[in-house]
Amino acid sequence: MHALMMNTPLMISSILKHAERNFPEVEMVSVTVDQSRHRQNNRAFASRCRQLANVLESLGAGFGDRIGTLAWNDFRHMELYYAVSGSGMVCHTINPKLFPEQVAYIINHAEDKILFVDVLVVPLLEALKDHLKQVETIVVLTDKSHMPESSLTNLQCYEELLDAHPDTYEWPQFDENTACGMCYTSGTTGNPKGVVYSHRSTVLHALAGALPDVTGASNMQTSLPVVPMFHVNAWGAPYAALMVGTKLVLPGPKMADGETLHDLMTSEQVTVSSGVPTIWMALLDYLEGNQKTVPSLSRVHVGGAACPRVIIERFREQHDCEVVQGWGMTETSPLGTVYAMKRGMEGFSEEEVTDLQLLQGRGVFGIEMRIVDENNSELPWDGSASGALKVKGPWVAKGYYGLSDVPGHEECPVDKDGWFNTGDVAAITPDGFLQITDRTKDVIKSGGEWISSIEIENAAVNHPDIAEAAVIGRYHPKWTERPLLIAVAQPGKSLQKSAVLEFLTDKLHKMALPDDVVFTDELPHTATGKINKLGLRETYKGYKFPDA
Ligand code: AMP
Predict the structure, then answer these.
(1) Least buried of 11, 310, 383, 527, by fewest C-beta within 10 Å?
(2) Three-state secondary structure of 466-518
(3) Is 32 close to ligand 1, i.e. is its CB under 6 Å away?
(4) Measuring from atom 1 of ligand 1, which residue has the nearest CA?
(5) CATH code linked to domain 1-212
(6) Which CATH number applies to 443-539?
(7) Ligand 1 binding pocket includes 422 (Cβ within 6 Å)
(8) Counting Cβ atoms within 10 Å, is residue 316 exposed (0-12), middle (13-18) or buried (19+)?
(9) What is the domain partition of the chain in residue ranges?
(10) pLDDT tens digits, the chain, 548 residues: what are they?
(11) Annotated catalytic residue: which of 136, 137, 292, 450?
(12) What is the pTM of this model?
């Protein structure tokens, strides 16, 4: 028997319409290259989105066209998110910090027709102009007075275009499985691959993201997403915030600047923020160094890489702020698991709670997960068995743009049984907390045993004089591979190898103790702020252990 319920398609434009009707006065505050503090409310925002939809049409873009963005977190990027997807086009966010060749590859592969770019990105495009095959128009996200001098002939000014168009526009309705967004993920080998989100997957992801035990987003919150809008849609914040009426504070290009973040957090009374661990380390150091605090901030979401214990402890002890770790990836939109307390934890000591916060969280409704051994047999959720992590759900990718999406095909990340292979190695506790032990390719295979590089890194960064640490496996004649610890000292501190190893002795299993420690001034990071292990493996290619 068929149900008698309306089959209303899940549309991104419905989030915008809901926000305009129910939260018209809620503000969106941005830092941009041309304005130190821009403010507009949702009513003005929705009106500008309609103007932008008219602009897109006037520039010759139509249903299904890919519209590229190279921009930071601000109101104009938000307008693109809604106007492009809302009118049936595909909002293709591109990370401007990637290598120029990768940026060109991604733009060409997606066949972007129009690019909307920040002023800061214009020089990059000038360098790439002879390589961009399909791009017809480049729109600079600024007003007339800030338009740059440029050798590009097809440049237009965003604010001028908007001014020239009316704010009347009917958002069309269409199949909810239509593509709304695209984000390329740079694997460590081969070309970047395009993940294509749908209206349905994005709306469902936002609904799940707003649940109390996930982000607890609400009209009473003020959120500062420090995770870039070119990195998995800022983890869904642009959608979840408008859905529930959260006030958004957007830091523009000042992502890693402790002073700007502190200023925004205190003056706008930010209650919740999200970002990768490196961002939080930088903010905590800035606050400590300048004897400042962030009284309104009650919750910080951390993901993208394992969260070191010191971040959890420093936020709790110095700022009375809870750290919530989550796990996800570009292909999972990204929400997979998020930390939340469970019944029975009420009497836990701070230490015990921290131990659980260090895990990657519990599965969010909508995401099924399993861990399997080398024969693809499912492993128990006992907290110790670890294997390849696989997931499935309505906001998990079933293929990559332009590659086969036939399950089991070598180009397809989904196996024959319909599970997406994350490339992560994990254990799951009986209570359902996920523990990522490594990336499949970063695991150190030593004498037949698997050693987790993350476990060693987490132990090392708890050393008070270590600012950052990375572990890679290097060739060893007896063990095949052994861990090499590469550490950066805190400013003004010096480190001794013997002291670091002694510090680690009672914190790690004997097999996991690094065979050597080397010190460096800086670790390489990827464009999304993670430690670039590929780069490190390249740097230490010829490295030999002292006893080898
Ligand atoms: P990306 O697609 O660039 O967001 O990268 C996704 C990958 O980041 C995952 O597959 C994990 O390897 C890693 N990752 C994300 N969140 C965490 C976390 N909380 N702890 C450890 N690794 C994480």
Answers:
(1) 383
(2) EEEEEEEEEEECCCEEEEEEEEEECCCCCCCHHHHHHHHHCCCCHHHCCCEEE
(3) no
(4) 329
(5) 3.40.50.12780
(6) 3.30.300.30
(7) yes
(8) middle
(9) 1-212, 370-440, 443-539
(10) 999 999 999 999 999 999 999 999 999 999 998 888 999 999 999 999 999 999 999 999 999 999 999 999 999 999 999 999 999 999 999 999 888 999 999 999 999 999 999 999 999 999 999 999 899 999 999 999 999 999 999 999 999 999 999 999 999 999 999 999 999 997 655 789 999 999 999 999 999 999 999 999 999 999 999 999 999 999 999 999 999 999 999 999 988 889 999 999 999 999 999 999 889 988 999 999 999 999 999 999 999 988 989 999 999 999 999 999 999 999 999 999 999 999 999 999 999 999 999 999 999 999 999 999 989 999 999 999 999 999 999 999 999 999 999 999 999 999 999 999 999 999 999 999 999 988 888 889 888 778 889 889 989 998 999 999 999 999 998 888 999 999 999 989 999 999 999 999 999 988 899 999 999 999 998 777 788 888 899 999 999 999 87
(11) 450
(12) 0.90
For the CA of 330, the closest atom of ligand 1 is 2
450 is catalytic: yes
Is residue 331 annotated as a catalytic residue, yes or no?
yes
Residue 424 Cα to ligand 1 midpoint, Å, equals: 8
> Ligand 1 test: best mutation among 230, 436, 437, most atoms within 8 Å of CB?
436
- Ligand 1 in contact with 185 (CB < 6 A)? yes
C-beta 293 within 6 A of ligand 1: no
- Give every CB contact of residue 180 below 8 A, 6+ residues apart in sequence: 12, 85, 90, 91, 197, 198, 199, 202
- 370-440 fold: Luciferase; domain 3 (2.30.38)
